[in-house]
Amino acid sequence: MLMTQIKVGVSTCLLGQEVRYDGQHKLDRFVRDVLGEYFDYVPVCPEVECGLPTPREAMRLVGDVENPRLVTNKTHMDHTERMLEYTKNKLEKLEEENLHGFIFKKDSPSSGLYRVKVYNDKGVGEKKGSGLFAGAFVKHFPNIPVEEEGRLNDPHLRENFIVRVFAHHRWKEFLAGEPSLGDLVEFHTREKLLLMAHSVEHYRSLGKLTAQAGDLPREELFSKFEELFLEALTFHATVKKNTNVLHHILGYFKEDISAWEKQEVLGLVDRYHEKQVPLIVPMTLLNHFINKYDKTYLKKQRYLNPHPKELMLRNKV
C-alpha cells in the first residue's frame, strides 16, 4: 500500500476551526484524527473565504431547487453573487491542488452535498438541494470522490468513499508515470477483482475497452478508462458481490487445498453471506492460502488491500 499523503479537500469547520456562522466549529474526530493519518487536508470554508465575518447571520437557500439564492435568515441579504464569484475563482485554484476527494459539511447552504433545505416563497423547506459551493464542485470535478461527514458514520458509505479516494490517487499516480498500453493492461489486471466487487458490468466494459486499446487514440483511451474505472467504484461492494469474488478467488486453489480446507473456506464465506462474520474473516483464510501457495496473480490483486488495514473497514458485520 502506497503511503504518500493523499490530498483531500475538507470543510474547514470539520477540522475544529471556529469558522461557523455562530463562531463555533464542528470538529469530526474521525475525519481529523483517523483519516488525517492518510489524507493531507486542504481546508475550505466558502463563507469565510468569500469575505463574510465570523460570527455572522445564518443563511439559507431559497427559491428554485436547481438555481437557489443564498439569503440571510432575518435581514434577507442576498449573498448569491458573492458566493458564485468566489466559487468560480476557488475551483480554478483547486485545480492546482490535485485533489483526490472532498469531505463536505452536511446541511450547509454553501457546503452541504445532499438534501440541503431549499425554502419556497411560503417559507417551507424541502430537502432537495446542494450547497452552492458543493454543487459547483461536483460539476467542475465529476470524477473526484465526494462525501459528507455525517454519511461517513455509515460503515458501508465510509468504506466506499475511502476505496474511491485511494483508487483515484492510484490512477492519477499511474498516469503521472506516462504509462504505455501494456501498462494499462497490467493496471486493469490488478484492479479486476476490486471492479468485480463493485460493478460486474463496468468490469466487463473495461475489459472490452482494454482489449481494443490499440484501436483508439491514446488520450481518448485513457480518458474513457478513467471515467469507467472511477464510475465503477461508485457502486457499492455488497455482500452478494463480495461473496461472488470470494468464490472466484477460491477457484484458484482447485489443485492445491484439500476437500476439508475447501469446506472450511466455504463455511466462512457462507457465514459472511449470512452476515454472521465480517469480510475480514474469510479474507484472512484466503490470504493464508494465497501466500502458502504463492498465487502471484492473486497477490497483485488490489481487492486484497484497497485501503490501509489499520482503518479496519472490513471488520464490520
TrEMBL record:
Tell me the ranges covered by the DUF1722 domain, including all copies: 192-308
Q: Which is a Pfam family this sequence falls into?
A: DUF1722
Q: Which domain of life is it from?
A: Bacteria
Entries under InterPro entries matching the protein: 2-thiour_desulf, DUF1722, UCP037004
The molecule here is called DUF1722 domain-containing protein
Q: Which organism is it from?
A: Isachenkonia alkalipeptolytica
